[in-house]
Amino acid sequence: MFGPSFRDGLSRRGVSLVAAILFAALNLTAHAQQPAPQLQERSGAVAPHVESEPPLNDYQRSQMAEWARDFADLHRYRAANQELGSPVAGEHRVIFYGDSITDKWTLSQYFPGRNYINRGISGQTTSQMLVRFRQDVIHLDPDVVVILAGTNDVAGNTGPISIEDIEGNITSMAELARAHDIALVLSSVMPVNNYTTASQRFFADRPPSEILRLNEWMKAYCASTNCYYLDYFDSMVDGSGLLKRDLSEDGLHPNDAGYKIMAPLAQSAIDKTMASR
After folding, report:
1. pLDDT band at 277 (very low <50, low <70, confident <90, very high)
2. What phi and psi values does residue 71 have, to the nearest 5 degrees?
3. For burial by CB atoms within 10 Å, which of 173, 219, 240, 241 has the most?
4. Directed axis angle between helix 163-179 and helix 126-136, to 10°?
5. pTM (2 decimals)?
6. Per residue in 70-85, pLDDT tens?
């Protein structure tokens, strides 16, 4: 029907069409692989906001290797917990659970004859304490747990965290305690001060307004859930809203005078909690 010249022309046109399609496809691919043009900030225009992570501080850098191995420091009390075992008949076990303020508290000195158990770990936040709550509290089957936590969260020891997320961690520990019939004493975050050279670093990381906000929430939470709110704050704060100068050398950790104020407050809270069980 068609002559050889027509078929040859059609074949050449087909090859040319295929080549054109391939060229167009390659050209589009090349454009797609190029980075998108950057938005130029013009006078009066608002540049897009980009969140940037704060750099690690000296404390965080010093802890990174340990956190990678054992974020919540579960190994700290593992052997001691196994040795302690379950409560004996008639034992009313009480655990003090917290950060360095608890860790540094020699309970046998301030509560003689009570055999209270210390499960504090220096530097810890509520995120870490929640992870180890089962091992260091629930498995020990106490009647009462006294939790003192939050100051290191406010300071961002394990990274930035909102007040709402701190509240969430504390709520989770409270719910775990309630589910295992453990009475909860929830301690206020203590005030801080900047009266000494040693106190400057701790104070800078712990805005008093954030401490007050967290304490207000804890007090309301205990009122609504029937846990005991242990108010250290009001007994240790001065007229400026800061930790009394004579109660701490570094503006954060209580000295002997500080612990002597805390001990009877804690004992009263434990007695009242035990009586209500």
Report:
1. confident
2. -55, -40
3. 173
4. 10
5. 0.80
6. 899 999 999 999 999 9
